[in-house]
């Protein structure tokens, strides 16, 4: 089977409180975009679960979320693991705040479920995905959704009006645990208007959503990284983006455009900063 695993963006991201279990309660609006990894799943007679990617540093065993997803699926179905080769062609940047690994895992869940005749609806499949990672349930659903709790409480939302998206991952990565620790030690200055963004989605108001995009993690980035993310956002807005923000715990910056020519201009400008720059549409 061949299947795509779409990247996600956080149109809004708010961290509410630290939970007794060590996780944080989140509230965020998620959006799928056309940028996607490509996966091939093929049964093998060896009885082994094997993963191959075009990036040598990614794990090829059960540490890879795609393999973990297969094991969790079979466990949920009461089946013994079977021989399976998973080949992943990576297009989503790694450690970028775009749920690349989680999306790969969700794609495996969807593919295995489809091959079995779809015995699990998306809610049940998302519950399996929760065992794999916090972003996997959303990646099972895809589209536009409100995610709460650790990310597993999902409410489908009216789709974001079709638009162009320019995405740029700068040359560094961000430590997610370090950002959460920093977030726990400061008082946040601003929070996203999630309710207003939901209302704008319900009204089909792309500009209204874009104006309300905000990510609380931007406030706790290390100084140099924050300056670079803000620089990328300023370029996006300067080129005509209706709004710009950072996705996840970063460092990827993105902007929403209602004009393809302006989006193309922003794409060309940001390629000068990073080869991991992409022009795509929402899905």
Q: Can you walk through the features of this model?
A:
The chain is an alpha+beta fold. The protein is 34% helix and 28% strand. It is built from nine helices and eleven strands. The chain has helices at residues 65-76, 100-115, 122-130, 136-141, 176-184, 194-202, 206-211, 223-238, 260-271; strands at 2-18, 24-43, 49-53, 84-89, 144-149, 153-156, 164-168, 214-215, 243-246, 253-257, 277-281. Strands 1, 2, 3, 4, 5, 6 and 8 form a seven-stranded mixed sheet that branches. A four-stranded antiparallel sheet has the order 9-10-7-11. Helix 1 (65-76) packs parallel to helix 2 (100-115), helix 2 (100-115) packs across helix 3 (122-130) and helix 8 packs antiparallel against helix 9. The protein is globular. It starts with a strand and ends with a strand. The mean pLDDT is 95.
Secondary structure layout plus pairing:
Layout: E1 2-18, E2 24-43, E3 49-53, H1 65-76, E4 84-89, H2 100-115, H3 122-130, H4 136-141, E5 144-149, E6 153-156, E7 164-168, H5 176-184, H6 194-202, H7 206-211, E8 214-215, H8 223-238, E9 243-246, E10 253-257, H9 260-271, E11 277-281
Parallel strand pairs: 1-8, 3-4
Antiparallel strand pairs: 1-2, 2-4, 2-5, 5-6, 7-10, 7-11, 9-10
Assembly classification:
single chain
In which range does the helix fraction lie? Answer: 25-40%
Uncertain segments of ≥5 residues (pLDDT<50)? none
Taken from the alpha-carbon principal axes, the silhouette is globular
Global mean pLDDT: 95
Task: Report how far apart the termini are.
Answer: 21 Å
Spell the H/E element sequence. EEEHEHHHEEEHHHEHEEHE
- Biggest sheet details: 7 strands, mixed
* H/I helix tally: 9
Number of strands: 11
Q: From the alpha-carbon coordinates, what is the Rg to the nearest angstrom?
A: 19 Å
């Amino acid at each position: 089977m061949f299947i795509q695993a779409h990247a996600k963006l956080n149109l809004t991201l708010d961290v509410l409180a630290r939970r007794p279990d060590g996780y944080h309660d989140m509230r965020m609006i998620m959006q799928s975009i056309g940028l996607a990894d490509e996966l091939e799943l093929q049964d093998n007679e060896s009885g082994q679960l094997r993963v191959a990617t075009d990036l040598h540093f990614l794990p090829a065993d059960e540490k890879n979320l795609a393999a973990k997803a297969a094991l969790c699926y079979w466990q949920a179905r009461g089946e013994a693991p079977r021989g399976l080769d998973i080949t992943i062609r990576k297009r989503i940047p790694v450690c970028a705040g775009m749920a690349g690994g989680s999306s790969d895992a969700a794609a495996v869940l969807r593919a295995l479920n489809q091959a079995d005749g779809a015995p699990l609806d998306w809610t049940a499949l998302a519950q399996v995905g929760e065992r794999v990672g916090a972003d996997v349930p959303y990646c099972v659903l895809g589209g536009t959704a409100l995610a709460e709790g650790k990310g597993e409480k999902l409410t489908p939302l009216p789709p974001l009006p079709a638009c162009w998206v320019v995405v740029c991952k700068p040359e560094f990565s961000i430590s997610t645990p370090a950002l959460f620790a920093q977030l726990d030690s400061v008082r946040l200055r601003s929070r996203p208007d999630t309710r207003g963004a939901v209302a704008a989605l319900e009204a089909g108001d792309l500009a209204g959503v874009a104006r309300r995009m905000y990510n609380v993690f931007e406030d706790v980035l290390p100084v140099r990284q924050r300056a670079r993310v803000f620089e990328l956002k300023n370029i996006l807005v300067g080129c005509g983006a209706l709004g710009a923000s950072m996705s996840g715990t970063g460092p990827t910056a993105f902007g929403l455009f209602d004009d393809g020519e302006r989006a193309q201009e922003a794409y060309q400008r940001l390629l000068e900063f990073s080869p991991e720059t992409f022009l795509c549409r929402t899905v």
